[in-house]
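Thread: "does anyone have the structure for this chain?"

Original post by V.I.:
We have the sequence but no experimental structure in hand. Need at least a predicted one for the grant figures.
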Amino acid sequence: MQELVAAVMDRLGVVGVGVLIALENLVPPIPSEVILPLAGFRANSGAYHPVAVWVAATLGALVGAWCLYGLGAWLGYDRLKRLSEQRWFIIAGPADVERGQQLFERHGAWIVAGARCVPVLRSLVSLPAGVVRMPLVKFSSLTMLGAGVWNAVFIAGGWHLADRWELFGQYVGPASIVVIVMIAGALVWLAVRKHRGDGNASPRPGQ
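Reply from O.Q.:
Generated one for you, tokens below.
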């Protein structure tokens, strides 16, 4: 994974950081926890300006989030509800969709900003934002706020690890494997849950 990320940066420069972060929103097994420290390390070596790295990463996160927001807006609540009734649609059941909409309408701003700092969730959160048609300016501002903080922390980490970069390399492989295993485990759990019918019952009043 580190070699792939490095190859993209070698070819595209600081723009490659933005491209990788945008893809990370759409393909979670490409973890920003690998991309951002490496970009910070290269900024420390003088290859990139650290501010340019941060701007590219934050804009990349926004572009990726817009793609999923657009998908959620295209689906809409009614279409998503119909999809959730299909047995092959393991992501959520009808009750999950209804509860999710209610929760998002009450606390959407906190969810969008906070989820940017949680692996996998930072990708998924853009879908319900699009479904409930959160104002795009608000969604974009919250996404940039959350992503900006996350990016700054990991870029700074890579910058300060410059003298001990070999330590980072020892953890990149295992970290990538953990992310992939977590995603696979979540998909299996969702499939089992859907098969059992959990999440299909209508929520009680007030839930």
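V.I.: this helps a lot. Residues 2-196 form one domain.
O.Q.: and The first helix runs from residue 2 to 12.
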